[in-house]
Amino acid sequence: MSIFQAIILGALQGITEFLPISSSGHLAIAQHLFGLELPVIFDVSLHLASLLAVLLVFRKILWSLILSFSRWIMRKNSIEDELQLNTILSLILASIVTAAFGLVFKKLIPDLPLIFIFGGFILTACALAASHKVHSREAEENTKEPKKISVLKALVIGASQGIGVLPGISRSGITISSSLFLKLDRKTAGEFSFLLSIPAILGAFILEAKDLTSLTTEVSLISLLIGCFTSFIVGYFSLRFLLKLIQKGKLYYFAFYLMPVAVLGFIFIH
Q: What is the pTM of this model?
């Protein structure tokens, strides 16, 4: 892999990891066009680099969750900690469901051909468009008062993220869309989706850590570092951009990108 290819793949990961257009699907297409066969651990390393962008953007929220959890451990939590503790519980429940779905899909479904990836693009586009139509203005009322996430909603969102492990289906797109279907306000939907990506990406990295010994023989260290750095920088700005679009209710815009790409893919990719 050349340094140029590492930069392209890193930038592609940084953009598509957060924008609801499927990072795994776009990386698969890029590999097809470049004629590359990337080791899974390289893909996961790019995800890990873009995860750093999540930690940076949501550092204040994460610190608040850590403090509330610490006070709960010491039995010093107050009423003000209830929302944070609810978020922690919801993240745990959703992550368990995601892990179950991910393990099942990994065992039962082999690497999918590109035609299925383009089908995933269409499903993501439909989810984005439908959630915009269904999500009413009522869900955005009183957003100054953050709402708790019920156990059922956490499980459904976790299942949605589990489905999002399939190439072509956007993890962020499907989780945010399902959150909007469940009548969460846009701010909560966006924040919960990306907080939920933290354990998902870390879990994937741990599962693939056994391949670390083969990484340096298949991808040079300089290509890996440059790809990861690019993924982090591009991912940070992509995430900030997407959060603004979510707040404005413009997430469905990406359906106008995914549909044409899918149609062109069905026509030209064999």
A: 0.87
What's the burial of 257, exposed, middle or buried (CB within 10 Å: 0-12/13-18/19+)? middle
- Band of residue 39 on the pLDDT scale cut at 50, 70, 90: low
Residue entry with tokens 């439908």: 130
pLDDT at 216 over 70: no
* Residues spanned by the domain of 173: 3-268
DSSP structure string for 65-106: HHHHHHHHHTT---GGGHHHHHHHHHHHHHHHHHHHHHHHHH
Number of other residues whose CB lies within 10 A of the CB of residue 30: 17
The domain tally of the chain equals: 1
| CA-CA-CA-CA dihedral for 136, 241, 84, 72, to nearest 10 | 170
Residues 144 and 185: beta-carbon distance below 8 Å: no
Q: How confident is the model at residue 78 (pLDDT cuts 50, 70, 90)?
A: confident
